[in-house]
Design brief:
Helices cover about 85% and strands about 0% of the residues. It is mainly α. It has one domain. It is elongated.
Amino acid sequence: MMETDKDLRGAYMAELETIIQFQLIILQNAKKLAAEERCYLLKFIKAKRAELFLVGINFELSNAESIEVRYAAAMANVKKLTPDKQTLFDALKQKYVEEKRQE
């Protein structure tokens, strides 16, 4: 009976360790994806400023040294857009990201 309990505890601990490792991998990938998203957003705004202006989307990027500060300022500006312009902005950004990923 005790051997069965030890085996059961060992199997449980091994499974728990696997779950924790999987969760850590997910967190690492999420952090990487968030960093990529920040970079793509800032590059998109800089590269497509003229196109955005033509459709009535005009805001300046912050000159802060920190990417996080520039990203937060850009997202604050995006959130101020009307729902229609937000949808257009997201569609243009998605197209830009897809083009960049294919290069």
